Automatic annotation (TrEMBL):
It comes from the Eukaryota. One of its GO terms (cellular component) is cytosol. PANTHER family: ARMADILLO-LIKE HELICAL DOMAIN-CONTAINING PROTEIN 3. InterPro entries: ARMD3-like. This is ARMD3 protein.
Length: 105
């Protein structure tokens, strides 16, 4: 079996018959970069996010790609990300602490 492609958050390149697979953490990052609150549909969104290994390359790329107007539209979600990041630093669960430390602040 061929090894999965992980560049840019993709687990598999797209082909004619299959949709590209994305890491779950990348899908969650994409939810943060929408106008709607990501925890609205999933109340455990933030707890789950910090249990997953950070995809720093993808997250930094998404942040750098935003212009001022786009950033203002998702300002509340970005603030929530950093607020929950700081809260995770105070938790006893070491995986959450390590993953929170890796989020670019």
């Amino acid at each position: 079996m061929a090894q999965a492609e992980k560049k840019g958050g993709l687990l598999r390149k797209s082909s004619a018959s299959k949709k590209p697979l994305k890491e779950k953490v990348v899908l969650m990052y994409d939810e943060i970069f929408t106008v709607e609150d990501p925890s609205k549909c999933n109340p455990r969104f933030w707890e789950e996010l910090f249990l997953m290994k950070v995809n720093l390359e993808y997250l930094e790329g998404k942040l750098e790609a935003l212009d001022g107007e786009e950033l203002m539209k998702i300002k509340d979600n970005i603030n929530c990300l950093f607020q929950h990041c700081i809260q995770a630093l105070g938790e006893e669960h070491p995986i959450r602490v390590v993953n929170a430390l890796q989020v670019p602040c």
